[in-house]
Design goal:
The structure holds 2 protein chains of 2 kinds.
Chain A: H1 23-31, H2 34-56, H3 61-77, H4 79-92, E1 96-100, H5 103-117, E2 121-124, H6 128-132, H7 135-141, E3 145-148, H8 151-158, H9 175-185, H10 197-214, E4 217-220, E5 224-226, E6 231-236, H11 240-246, E7 250-256, E8 260-261, H12 267-278, E9 286-291, E10 301-307, H13 311-315, H14 331-335, H15 337-342, H16 353-364, H17 385-389, H18 396-410, H19 415-427, H20 430-440, H21 443-447, E11 452-453, H22 461-464, E12 469-470, H23 477-481, H24 484-499
Parallel strand pairs in A: 1-10, 2-3, 2-4, 4-7, 5-8, 7-10
Antiparallel strand pairs in A: 5-6, 6-9, 11-12
Chain B: H1 3-17, H2 37-50, E1 54-58, H3 63-73, E2 78-81, E3 96-99, E4 114-117, E5 121-123, E6 128-131, E7 148-154, E8 158-159, H4 162-166, E9 175-178, E10 183-184, E11 192-193, E12 200-206
Parallel strand pairs in B: 1-12, 2-3, 2-4, 4-7, 5-8, 7-12
Antiparallel strand pairs in B: 5-6, 6-9, 10-11
The chains are: A alpha/beta, B alpha/beta.
Protein name (chain A): L-lactate dehydrogenase complex protein LldF
Organism (chain A): Rhodococcus rhodochrous J3
Domain LUD (chain A): 85-306
């Protein structure tokens, strides 16, 4: 609220939520990488099949999805009271709660907390929230070394690279590349290391074990935060999460404010939905839950940083806020025909795939037509597979359509709106439409041999900002109808009809 | 204005601009399921084996014999146990038994060849064992740092599904859910068992 009590739309978030170029441009580069396409294709198809197996064996899967969706709606409905309840519960159990309005504030809070421990190293559990705020980059600037401990995140970090998938961030790398990265970047690595995944994992175990035992501070995200009890939960597979959440003296957890669940009981829904949707397992190997500080067990200092960074801006959109239900399972990525071909880098943001295409523009905004985020709502064929796969039933196609609408609204006086207006005028009269279609045939000149128009000239440029346009056909349907070929086809059809 | 007040104010602004739609949470998924002992056992064994855990069955009377056999077969000479574990469980074991205490540095736990603990509750349908830091399970580091975890599961603590298992927990205790040994599929999606936690999980079912 402002001082006068009038509600204003909350500010957008910052950090790693926007790429440098528009989706079609970024996608074109990614599509030219056959290794990436092969790896992503294999990963998405494998996980997809596993997910269908384990969701199919639960007769109440749909009821669980309904419950999950309703719990998440309830969370957003009661967000202020639940956040305060969480704060009270965590504080009562010896934790300290911090509130971060944006990425910069969250980074500053975490940096300050690490400094106070006297350490210039931290170990990290894979976390989307800290990737979103660019924590590692910030810590590096501040002279603090952050070690990613998830194997894939370690591969990405050592390769000075970016994650390409929410669940398996290094899926764009093959074993030979990973071996090379380890040999080049991992201290004290065995020079005879081969590219057997088992041996590569063992090299990571050896490298990280020393860090787990000696680094006194860990930074994690959270999959769930329980308002009622102050309990935080992290689900994982490798045990690096358990190490980070158990061994250091100080634990700092960064959690988006939408990750709340009202009660401990709600986990009975989400601990069924998440692993089956995410890795296609009945349960992930390890889940850790902790509530504040437990004397004699685990970190004796616990800080929880609650992150807004554009989430309240998304909440102000009646339709778009459904994207805040997301539990980051990545099922929508694995079923998306667009993601399957482009991979995650093309989306530019920490959040790729269908959910990223609705989440990134909402968290970080798409306020001018040339914003890369304004191209994301068009990075979809609207096939609806993501909606079917989503464990909390986020209607991603409808959200994409709404964001497309908003993008056009934002660009109301821009080129796309002018193009739409021209189309509307042309379509309102049959004479004008025929003339326009004939003129469009000239578009083949623009398309050239590739049969695709990537940059329309002048006022029409708005249309191709976010998409390619196929070249118009040689002749319109009306022209074909009136041609010898059209007449002959019609006569043949008539003849066949009479024979029956 | 503090960021706390700012964020709470932003949420209220957002909710004024886009008012919430009240919702009832439908809980018509399966709850309160039960199965006879034999079926629960069969389901759990199936899931544990699927996760590549090693499964043994024992009577409470023979437990010390079964445990000694497992430890010996694994070449264990020093085994760690939590303070509250029934010492008679290790009566047959010939090696050194180290009782954990909180002033032992976690790094020292790496010197143990393995650890034996009890468990709080187990979910048969997902093959998940829950530890809650009770005296017979110990602090979390104890079941994390050594490379072998031998975990005893009593059939009376085995529930059918996730809701039934969670209902038996005290949320405020430190809880670790274990479904097989640690694993990664991060390299070309090829599954590798045993990354950071104990690389071997032996489960002994009793009762």
């Amino acid at each position: 609220m402002t001082a006068l009590g009038m509600p204003v739309v909350p500010p957008r978030g910052s950090g790693n939520l926007r790429g440098l170029e528009k989706f079609p441009d970024a996608a074109r580069q990614e599509l030219a990488n056959p290794q990436l396409r092969r790896n992503i294709g294999k990963a998405t198809h494998t996980i997809r099949a596993k997910r269908l197996n384990v969701t199919g064996e639960l007769p109440d899967w749909e009821q669980l999805r309904d419950a999950g969706a309703a719990v998440k709606t309830d969370v957003l409905n009661r967000l202020p009271e639940l956040l305060v309840q969480l704060e009270e519960a965590v504080t009562a159990r010896g934790g300290v709660v911090h509130w971060a309005a944006d990425a910069a504030e969250a980074n500053a809070i975490v940096t300050d907390l690490i400094r106070k421990t006297g350490s210039d190293e931290v170990i990290k559990v894979k976390s989307m929230a800290t990737q979103e705020i660019g924590l590692n980059e910030h810590l590096e600037e501040q002279g603090i070394a952050a070690y990613e401990t998830d194997l894939a995140e370690l591969i990405v970090q050592l390769g000075h690279d970016k994650p390409s998938h929410i669940l398996v961030p290094a899926i764009h790398r093959n074993r030979a590349e990973i071996r090379e990265i380890f040999l080049r970047e991992m201290p004290d690595v065995d020079p005879d290391l081969d590219d057997n995944p088992r041996h590569l994992a063992a090299a990571a175990r050896k490298f990280l074990r020393h860090k787990f035992m000696t680094v006194p501070v860990a930074v994690s995200g959270a999959n769930f935060g329980i308002a009622e009890t102050g309990t935080l939960a992290v689900v994982e597979s490798e045990g690096n999460g358990r190490m980070c959440l158990t061994l250091p003296q100080t634990l700092i957890t960064v959690m988006g404010i939408e990750k709340l669940l009202p009660t401990f009981r709600d986990l009975e829904v989400f601990l069924q939905l998440l692993p089956r949707s995410s890795t296609g397992e009945r349960m992930n190997p390890y889940t850790s839950m902790w509530t504040g500080v437990t004397p004699g067990d685990g970190p004796q200092e616990f800080h929880l940083v609650l992150l807004d960074n554009g989430r309240t801006a998304a909440l102000a959109d009646e339709i778009g806020r459904e994207a805040l239900h997301c539990i980051r399972c990545s099922a929508c990525l694995n079923v998306c025909p667009v993601y399957e071909r482009t991979g995650g880098h093309a989306y530019g943001s920490t959040y790729p795939g269908p959910i990223g295409a609705v989440l990134s523009p909402q968290l970080a905004g798409m306020d001018e037509p040339h914003d890369p985020n304004a191209s994301l709502p068009f990075a979809s064929s609207l096939c609806g597979a993501c909606y079917d796969a989503c464990p909390v039933k986020i209607d991603i196609p409808s959200l994409l359509v709404e964001l497309r609408h908003q993008k056009v609204e934002h660009a109301r006086f821009g080129p796309e709106a002018a193009a739409m207006k021209a189309a509307s005028l042309a379509m309102s009269s049959s004479r004008r439409w025929t003339a326009a279609q004939k003129a469009a045939g000239l578009g083949r000149v623009l398309a050239g041999k590739k049969g695709r128009i990537t940059n329309l000239p002048g006022p029409l440029a708005g249309w191709t900002d976010a998409r390619d346009m196929p070249a118009p056909p040689k002749q319109t349907f009306r022209q074909w109808w009136a041609s010898d070929e059209g007449r002959a086809a019609l006569a043949k059809a008539r003849e066949e009809g009479q024979q029956r | 204005m503090s960021s706390r007040d700012a964020i709470l104010g932003r949420i209220r602004s957002a909710q004024t601009l886009a008012p919430p739609t009240p919702v009832e949470v439908p809980r018509d998924y399966r709850l309160g399921r039960t199965l006879p002992d034999a079926e629960r056992r069969e389901l759990l064994v199936d899931r544990l084996v699927d996760y590549k855990a090693h499964v043994h069955e024992s009577t409470p009377e023979d437990l010390h014999v079964v445990l000694a056999k497992i430890l010996t077969a694994r070449g264990v000479r020093r085994v760690g146990i939590p303070e509250g574990l029934d010492r008679s469980w290790l009566a047959e074991f010939g090696g050194e038994v180290v009782v954990d205490s909180i002033d032992r540095p976690a790094a020292d736990l790496g010197d143990l060849d393995g650890v034996v603990t009890a468990s709080a509750v187990t979910c048969a349908e997902t093959g998940t064992i829950f530890l809650d830091g009770s005296p017979d399970q110990g602090r979390r580091a104890l079941t994390l740092v050594p490379d072998l975890h031998v975990c005893v599961v009593a059939m009376s603590d085995v529930e059918v599904g996730v809701p039934e298992a969670l209902a038996r927990l005290v949320p405020e205790r430190p809880i670790t859910m274990i479904s097989g040994p640690s694993a990664t599929s991060d390299i070309e999606l090829e599954r590798v068992e045993g990354v950071h936690g104990p690389r071997t999980l032996e489960v002994v079912m009793i009762g």
